[in-house]
Design a protein that fits this description.
By secondary structure, this protein is of the alpha+beta class. The protein folds into 2 domains: 1-99, Phosphorylase Kinase, domain 1 (2-Layer Sandwich), CATH 3.30.200; 105-352, Aminoglycoside phosphotransferase (APH), C-terminal lobe (Aminoglycoside 3'-phosphotransferase, Chain: A, domain 2, Alpha-Beta Complex). It has helices spanning 51-69, 112-128, 147-160, 170-183, 185-191, 232-243, 261-275, 281-286, 290-308, 320-337, 339-354; strands spanning 13-18, 26-32, 37-42, 86-87, 93-98, 103-104, 198-200, 209-212, 218-221, 228-230. Strand 1 (13-18) and strand 2 form a beta hairpin.
Length: 355
């Protein structure tokens, strides 16, 4: 792979093979003749149109984390010209990360312990980035968790209705609109200064955590493209939405979708072990609300895309985005029923951490 040769690697490129299941960037696993391995990616500039700003930002984040942790774990390989990315003659943007040896990723948790370890990693991530002022961060995707704007986009899609699909989703729309005030509550609290903005990961899915093959403990978070100003509750909530659901994000049997409280409690325990002493009381109180807010927001996004004709999310079958929306709504409804239990878990764990 010619692009890899433009980076400061340990040895010459011996092979480069497609790698991973990501849908945003083109990713390759590169091995050099010296036996070192790297991840080479062609950055999707349709999603991230300013790769130079993105990579300078990621370089800054990784260096800050190395200083905070006292060691370098996730690093950026520099191009031979000293920049953290390289541009080919066609305008393609490329980057390289050293592959962290003896690690693996998970698409879903095998046990609650996996959730605890991922929670500890993402909690520690927030704590390690405390020294980065949110206002200084590069915003790679503006309005990423602007929940009111997401609802506005849904209403606009319904008015436009280019495929005539709005007539088939009246029940979904009715439920989502009934949840709007609650789903937007965290965003409004942040606007009013009741919740502080922090440097947050913003894509806290389980598969963005590296685990050690020997100990099976969490090593570090990866995929730093969306490190932006955000709320601790959003990072907490998205991890729960993805990892503590009993069924896949696009489950066709919505009756099988519910919140797994054992996974929820395990993740909360790890997350608070990682950052409880760094969060304010208001932030701790907001954590249990995060999963519902993020799940509704994601349902809104799926339904918006369905109504507009499936123009953003990749679909594998007709009605795929609608099925995704319905699965998220089933999860949100179960979260509503379990709200008190979710809050009790946080209160109990917070009391334990303080004592």
């Amino acid at each position: 792979m010619r692009a890899a040769a433009h980076f400061d690697l340990s040895g010459r490129v011996a092979q480069a093979l497609p790698w991973g299941q990501g849908h945003i960037h083109r990713t390759f696993r590169v091995e050099t003749d010296g036996g070192k391995e790297y991840i080479l990616q062609k950055i999707n500039t349709a999603v991230f149109p300013q790769p130079e700003k993105l990579m300078e930002h990621i370089l800054r984040v990784t260096r800050h984390m190395a200083d905070a942790a006292g060691k370098s774990v996730f690093r950026v390989s520099l191009a031979r010209d000293g920049r953290p990315w390289w541009q080919d003659e066609h305008g393609g943007a490329w980057r390289v990360y050293p592959l962290i040896p003896n690690t693996f990723t998970l698409q879903e948790p095998r046990t609650p312990q996996d959730m605890l370890e991922s929670g500890r990693v993402f909690g520690r991530f927030i704590k390690d980035l405390m020294g980065m002022a949110p206002k200084t961060l590069y915003v790679s995707i503006p309005g990423f968790h602007d929940t009111p704007v997401r609802f506005d986009a849904l209403r606009a899609a319904v008015r436009k209705d280019p495929k005539g699909r709005a007539q088939f989703v009246t029940e979904e729309l009715k439920y989502l609109y009934s949840c709007e005030a609650r789903a937007c509550r965290l965003y409004q609290q942040a606007l009013q200064g009741q919740l502080p903005l922090r440097a947050t990961h913003n894509d806290t899915k389980l598969n963005n955590v590296l685990f050690d093959r020997s100990s099976e403990k969490g090593v570090c978070a990866v995929d730093l493209d969306t490190v932006m100003p955000g709320l601790a509750a959003y990072d907490f909530g998205d991890a729960i939405r993805f990892g503590a659901s009993s069924a896949p994000e696009d489950a066709q049997d919505t009756q099988a979708v519910h919140l797994d409280l054992s996974r929820y409690a395990a993740y909360a325990r790890g997350f608070l072990q990682g950052c409880a002493d760094a969060l304010t009381h208001a932030e701790l109180d907001s954590l249990a609300e995060g999963p519902f807010s993020i799940t509704i927001e994601q349902a809104v996004r799926f339904l918006t895309d369905y109504i507009l004709g499936d123009i953003y999310y990749r679909v594998d079958r007709p009605g795929h985005n609608l099925q995704r929306c319905r699965a998220q709504l089933a999860l949100a409804r179960d979260m509503e029923k379990r709200s008190a239990q979710m809050r009790d878990v946080i209160v109990e764990l917070t009391d334990r951490e303080e004592n």
